[in-house]
Amino acid sequence: MLEREKQGFKQKLAARYGASSQKGRGTVVLQGQSGVTVYDCRKILQYSPKEIRLSVAKRTLSVTGERLFCPSFSAGTVTVEGYVTGVVYLENDD
After folding, report:
1. What is the pTM of this model?
2. What secondary structure does DSSP assign to 1-66, as a single string?
3. Could you give the domains of the chain?
4. Does the pLDDT value for residue 20 go beyond 50?
């Protein structure tokens, strides 16, 4: 039953934000300068009030700003709130 619910969630996510969210590429949704929602996040790599780095689809996503915090991280979905000044994928040192 849980797998069916998970599949239904992925279908709703794909319908709302595009098929990339189903393929593990990550989807980033900005809410003005007050927040960012990131889908397909693997883990939080760095956490401070000025920068939060996330592992998203084998890449590193940096969210910069002021008074940043993560009110939620559940099922690969991370919400970052605060005053957002930048969102950028960083080059990996592989």
Report:
1. 0.71
2. -HHHHHHHHHHHHHHHH-GGGTTTS-EEEE-TTSEEEEESEEEEEEE-SSEEEEEETTEEEEEEEE
3. 25-90 (2.60.40.2000)
4. no
